[in-house]
Design goal:
Blueprint (H helix, E strand, L loop, with lengths): L10 H9 L9 E4 L2 E4 L5 H18 L4 E4 L15 E4 L16 E8 L3 H14 L4 E6 L4 E10 L5 E10 L3 E4 L2 E7 L11
Parallel strand pairs: 5-6
Antiparallel strand pairs: 1-2, 3-4, 4-5, 6-7, 7-8, 9-10
Amino acid sequence: MAVATTKRFTIAEYHRLVELGFFHEDDRTELIRGVIIQMAAKSTAHTVCCSNLLEALARLLANRATLRCQDPVTLPSGSEPEPDFTIVRQRSDNYLSGHPAPADILLVIEIAESSLDYDRDVKRSLYAEANISDYWIFNLIDNCLETYSEPYQDLQSKFDYAVRRIILLSKTVTLPGFPELQLNLSKTFPTPSPQ
């Protein structure tokens, strides 16, 4: 009886597939622990939240850090996720020589609706394993921000964050590493206009 196996790709192999045109330019894929994952389509609410965040974060971070939107980060677990936003240290080559690695990353942000369980379970563990200090999920189902900090590894070798906070959309939140920068959540979440 044949046993089914999954082909796991290295980051170099994944990059080569991209170079060879294996993926259509509209394909939304990411490499998670060597497996190529098709990313979920974005809802209108996701798109609006992304636009709102892009505007707010770009304004706050001007000349302080580099803001990347839906671009890859390279992790040691054989993963290259494409978070909705990554705030990274400024570098003279603007990351032309390679995607940001964990040492470059100040904050990873995912916007989650249909992907909420995946972002909470798979991605949270992935970012904690990479020792990324802060991970945020803009939870569009419950209209709140979930913040995770202080990555750790437990006795069963599972990775997670020790501190989890739920912040309501009526609040402001301080950007990690920038105590002077406050993000007003009411300006980022998509809210229906009054009828």
